[in-house]
Amino acid sequence: MSGGRRQRALIAQGVAQESGLLLDEPATGPDPGARERIAALLTEPVADGVAVVRATHDLEAARSADACLLLRDGRLVGQGHPGRLPTPAALDRIR
C-alpha cells in the first residue's frame, strides 16, 4: 500500500471511530487530489464537535485551521489565529 493510501486509511479509521484525531502530517504522501479529499473529510468531524489536531509544516494547511500553535523543539513559542500567526517574524523565531 502506498504511503498516501495508508494515510487515507488511517484517517478513515479515526473518523469511523468517532474519537478525537491526532494527525501527524496528514497531507504528506497523498497526491494533490487526495490532499483535497482529506481536507474535506476532516471538516465533517469538526462540524460534529470532534477535536482534530493536525501537525504540519505546510503553511497553507496551517492557515486553514481554526487555531494555530507554533512549536520549536517541542516547546510552544506562539499561538493564535492562523490568519495572523504564521508571520515571517513568528516563523523566524522557530527556525
UniProtKB/TrEMBL annotation:
<dbReference type="InterPro" id="IPR015854">
    <property type="entry name" value="ABC_transpr_LolD-like"/>
</dbReference>
<dbReference type="InterPro" id="IPR027417">
    <property type="entry name" value="P-loop_NTPase"/>
</dbReference>
<protein>
    <recommendedName>
        <fullName>ATP-binding cassette domain-containing protein</fullName>
    </recommendedName>
</protein>
